[in-house]
Amino acid sequence: MSAVVAIPESPVYRPMRDSDVAAVMAIEKRAYRFHWSEGIFRDCLRVGYGCWILELGGSIGGYGVLSLVVGEAHLLNICVTPEWQGQGYGRLLLEHFIELARERGAYQMLLEVRPSNKPALRLYHTRGFEQVGIRKNYYPGDRGREDALILGLPL
Question: Which of 34, 62, 67, 90 gives 54 a disulfide partner, CB atoms 3.0 to 4.6 angstroms apart?
Answer without folding.
Answer: 62
